[in-house]
């Protein structure tokens, strides 16, 4: 997978982060940050989406920059594979860390 594809995946993460942060979408079963702790009531829902959006924007920005940087680097097939794996791991880690931090903030603000 070329670095451009990873930059596009990261840009999608960035877009979804902005959507979660700025939208005031009502609690539903299809769109948004949906965990049991986030779906307790409308207040936790809005807080969780805004918090997750903030962390996703940060992670998405880092991933986009990493993907664009990878495009400027001269590399062979082995380096390209390492760069692709690194970018993929960074993307997955960004989502995982965003979820962890959002759940932590929900617990701190609303308890169990």
From TrEMBL:
InterPro entries hit by this protein: SdpI/YhfL
Name under which the protein is recorded: SdpI/YhfL protein family protein
Organism from which the protein derives: Dendrosporobacter quercicolus
Keyword field: Membrane, Transmembrane, Transmembrane helix
Transmembrane segments: 6-23, 44-69, 81-101
Taxonomic lineage from the root: Bacteria, Bacillati, Bacillota, Negativicutes, Selenomonadales
Domain of life: Bacteria
